[in-house]
Design goal:
- The protein has 142 residues and is α+β, with helices and mostly antiparallel strands.
- It has one domain (9-133): GAF domain (Beta-Lactamase), CATH 3.30.450.
- It is built from 4 helices and 6 strands, in the order H-H-E-E-E-H-E-H-E-E.
- Strands 3-2-1-6-5-4 form a 6-stranded antiparallel sheet.
- Strand 1 and strand 2 (55-62) form a beta hairpin.
- The longest helix is centred in the first third of the chain and has 14 residues, at 28-41.
- The chain starts with 8 loop residues before the first helix and ends in a 9-residue tail after the last strand.
- The model has no long low-confidence stretch (mean pLDDT 96).
Length: 142
């Protein structure tokens, strides 16, 4: 299922552009955060993902070789719809929003996803810090 577009999309994209972070070089601080997220959550993949008009771009990544994916298949594009809460998908293969998603049925074979929205100074969600696993999760996340 294609993610919806937030009501504040224009303001959200403006806030993202003001950050001047898209397509910039890797930074140790972001890499430390993703490494720590993967370690703390016990997942093979962690990302700092920024959602722009057409794609999600990874400012930092652990356990994934690609640098971006189309927005239309991005789990993080769903997470920014509810910026006040953690988005958790315990088994993507059983969730109607994601079951036929090519990131679930093919590589990287996503089953578990948890994404915490990242907010610009003005409050708009511009991306997520997320963790991904190839096995479903049964633990309750809050």
């Amino acid at each position: 299922m294609k993610p919806p577009i937030p009501d504040n999309e224009t303001a959200r994209l403006t806030a993202l552009e003001r950050c001047e972070i898209l397509d910039t070089a890797a930074e140790q601080g972001f890499d430390d955060i993703t490494f720590l997220a993967a370690q703390l959550c016990g997942t093979p993949v962690a990302l700092v993902s920024l959602v722009d008009r057409e794609r999600q771009w990874f400012k930092s990544r652990v356990g994934l070789d690609v640098t971006e994916t189309p927005r239309e298949i991005a789990f993080c594009a769903h997470a920014i719809m509810e910026p006040e809460q953690l988005k958790v998908v315990n088994d993507a293969s059983k969730d109607l929003r994601f079951a036929s998603n090519r990131l679930v049925v093919g590589t990287p074979d996503i089953r578990f996803y948890a994404g915490a929205p990242l907010l610009a100074e003005t409050g708009e969600p511009i991306g997520t810090l997320c963790v991904i696993d190839r096995t479903p999760e049964t633990t309750e996340w809050r």
